[in-house]
Design goal:
By secondary structure, this protein is an alpha/beta fold. It has two domains: about 200 residues, FAD/NAD(P)-binding domain, CATH 3.50.50.60; about 120 residues, FAD/NAD(P)-binding domain (3-Layer(bba) Sandwich), CATH 3.50.50. The protein has seven helices and 19 strands. A hairpin with a 5-residue loop joins strand 6 and strand 7. The termini are far apart. Bound molecules: NADPH dihydro-nicotinamide-adenine-dinucleotide phosphate. NADPH dihydro-nicotinamide-adenine-dinucleotide phosphate binds next to helix 5.
Length: about 325
């Protein structure tokens, strides 16, 4: 255990678009932010091939490239970007304590949580293989659907997300096959009815994924199994979308912050980034189960840095709110 306790004005946890945007704003406001990248530097976007819907990139950009650019923009203003995983926090007192890799202790005036959420996957070897290859497995139709324009795809899930994504895909793809593991949807009635009424969406009830099929590089189909009859069949498809929910990365905060039943951090004051603990702010997917886009994460990262800056200014007469962020 390290005995040296470091003190920082603004600690940012997470290195997706929310974390780096918070860092850019905090650094330009002289808050000298320290950002811990976590176990997946760059966050969820590093598993996306091409990002075409982030304004400012008319030709598109790959997810990993975009994250490198965001990092270098944060570092240009002297954000201290570090490798490391925050394993524990204590938000019970005036000083917010965090521990890095269970060792290093840091005391923070403000903390911005940008830990994101992780898409759930089925866990099949074949699914993971083509996910890692970038060969046709995705957990985000809005991000990747366009690459399957005029093609046939399969989507798994029966919640609101799956319905929304299936409907989105139906406008791009010639056919969408939806795999529902029970004989009914979990989604709200209106969302379920919308997919049921869409001509090019075929719904297979009581149906699970047996294997994602491919040629070693890209997905070519899906073998599915009816869990009532055990009958299997192969569905040709170039894309396999998984929409079975997300898990927000918020476990370490649960003893201190108000979370909803799924684990998303609750914004204490809607329309701000404030949590129930003064000086602790949240941005990005850790508090957002609805939009979940890079651009909305970046927007809330900006909000968190501005809220943290105002909090520091209110607390410390010597800390002036900078004007640079308002230009
Ligand atoms: P949900 O947890 O609501 O649904 C997950 C779905 O995935 C369920 O149908 C579940 O099946 C299915 N599933 C889970 N594991 C597997 C598996 N291993 N194999 C096959 N199917 C599986 O997650 P969502 O992301 O859809 O929604 C999360 C929250 O966000 C909900 O509260 C939802 O209402 C909300 N939301 C709202 C939207 C809106 O209002 N516009 C849009 C999107 C989400 P089963 O039903 O059998 O358990």
């Amino acid at each position: 255990m390290s005995n040296t306790i470091e003190k920082v004005k603004c600690l940012i946890i997470g290195s997706g678009p929310a974390g780096y945007t918070a860092a850019i704003y905090a650094a330009r406001a002289n808050m000298k932010p320290v950002l811990y990248q976590g176990t997946q530097p760059g966050g969820q976007l590093t598993t996306t091939n091409e990002v075409e819907n982030f304004p400012g990139y008319p030709k598109g950009i790959t997810g990993p490239e975009m994250m490198m650019e965001l990092q270098s923009q944060a570092e240009r203003f002297e954000t201290d970007v570090r490798n490391g995983w925050i394993t524990k926090v204590d938000f019970s007192g005036d000083v917010h304590k965090v521990w890095v890799n269970d060792e290093k202790e840091i005391h923070c005036d403000t903390v911005i949580i940008s830990t994101g959420a992780s898409a759930k996957y089925l866990g099949l070897d074949s699914e993971q293989k083509y996910l890692k290859l970038g060969g046709g497995v995705s957990a985000c139709a809005v991000c990747d659907g366009f690459f399957y324009k005029n093609q046939e795809v399969v989507i798994v899930g029966a919640g609101d997300s799956a319905c929304e994504e299936a409907h989105y895909l139906s406008k791009l793809c010639t056919k969408v096959t939806m795999l529902v593991r029970r004989d009914e949807f979990r989604a709200s009635k209106i969302m379920a009815e919308r997919v049921q009424k869409t001509e090019n969406i075929e719904i297979l009830y009581n149906t699970e994924t047996d294997e994602v099929l491919g040629d070693g590089q890209v997905v070519t189909g899906v073998r599915v199994k009816n869990n009532q009859t055990n009958e299997t069949k192969e569905i040709p498809a170039t894309g396999f979308f998984v929409a079975i929910g997300h898990k927000p990365n918020t476990d370490i905060f649960k003893d201190y912050l108000n979370l909803d039943e799924t684990g998303y951090i609750i914004n204490e004051k809607p329309g701000t980034s404030k949590t129930n603990v003064d000086g602790v702010f949240v941005s990005g997917d850790a508090a957002d189960h609805v939009y979940r886009q890079a651009i909305t994460a970046a927007g809330t990262g900006c909000m968190a840095a501005l809220d943290a800056e105002r909090y520091l200014a209110a607390k410390d007469a010597n800390f002036e709110v900078s004007t640079s962020n308002y230009n």
